[in-house]
Amino acid sequence: MSITYVDAILEAQDHLLREDPRVFLYGQDISRFGGAFKATKGLAEAYPGRVLDSPISEDAMIGMAIGAALAGMRPVVEMQFADFSSIAFNQIVNHAGTHFYRTGMPVPITVRLPSGGTPGSGPFHSQSMEAIYSHYPGLVVVTPATVSDAYHMLLQSVALDDPVVYCEHKFLYRWLKASSIDREAPPLGQARITRPGKHATIVAYSAMVHEAVRAADRLKVESGWEIEVVDLRTVKPLDMDTVLASVARTGRLLALGEAFPWGGVTAEVVARVASEGFHLLDAPPKRFNSRDTPVPYHPNLWAAHRPTPETICLAMRELLAF
């Protein structure tokens, strides 16, 4: 029997509701309907009064969650799609993100963002918002890429006193499976070496970790290159110690992300490596993202819009040839 990525998110919420009376879930159609992706299926029946349908107002959703958190609760808010969280932008960055700095009172809310693209989803249901929220002080932004991380990082997020933006990738929901959930996980803010290597480093996060591993496996078979893959896991804070240690071993860096390229997580990784680890590099660091256009609807166009193992291999060969 296997457990999927979305199963792990469901199990984590079940655990939280069972173990912590301060936790409640809030979102559009998440009670009886179980949410747009069934990530809360069955929880309303198991925990009456603690899995609550919200109005179709993301601004009001986060405002209510902030008030509940200040009153001692631990709200977990589900956005139907990450894209829609922009409606609550003011509440998230100006109120939740700054409240402890302004008053000394923490705002322990967790905002679940179904992120990233899937075939046919188009420009309003496919965006990756992690860099936008990472720009603002006071927020923690996590991007689990494995089934075990989807489970443990949600538990860790809710336990944290800081507001957390939890970016779960929709493409992984039912595609990514594991035989079990690991008993333990690294702490928030710590990256992981997913695949060891010695010739170049790919720094990735969320669904792109799996595309990076596929590309690395292909380069090994075709050319004998050993590519190290670093899974950031958390993009704010950013574990530069693990990234720089990997670059020290390999001398080359490709920062990989599904989000738009301008001002993204990959840009931050390249900038930090260039300023803090320039002496470690044997080639100019590169970044590789989706194209700088709205996300297309057609599955073929979507596949051409985002990085794939084939295009990642092309970028890596250019880096390795320098």
How would the blueprint of this fold be written?
Layout: E1 3-4, H1 5-19, E2 23-27, H2 43-46, E3 51-53, H3 58-70, E4 74-78, H4 89-96, H5 99-103, E5 110-115, H6 130-134, E6 140-142, H7 147-159, E7 164-169, H8 172-175, E8 177-178, E9 192-195, E10 200-204, H9 208-223, E11 227-231, E12 234-236, H10 240-250, E13 253-256, H11 265-276, E14 286-288, H12 299-305, H13 309-321
Parallel strand pairs: 2-3, 2-4, 4-5, 5-7, 6-7, 10-11, 10-13, 13-14
Antiparallel strand pairs: 1-8, 6-12, 9-11
Describe this structure in words.
It is an enzyme of class 1 (oxidoreductase). InterPro entries: THDP-binding, Transketo_C/PFOR_II, Transketolase-like_Pyr-bd, Transketolase_C. This is Pyruvate dehydrogenase E1 component beta subunit/2-oxoisovalerate dehydrogenase E1 component beta subunit. Pfam families: Transket_pyr (PF02779), Transketolase_C (PF02780). The chain has 322 residues and is of the alpha/beta class. It has 2 domains: 176 residues, Rossmann fold; 130 residues, Rossmann fold (3-Layer(aba) Sandwich). A 7-stranded mixed β-sheet has the order 3-2-4-5-7-6-12, with helices on both faces. The chain has 13 helices and 14 strands. The chain is globular. The model has no long low-confidence stretch (mean pLDDT 97). Helix 1 runs parallel beside helix 7, helix 3 packs parallel to helix 4 and helix 9 crosses helix 13. Strand 13, helix 11 and strand 14 form a beta-alpha-beta unit.
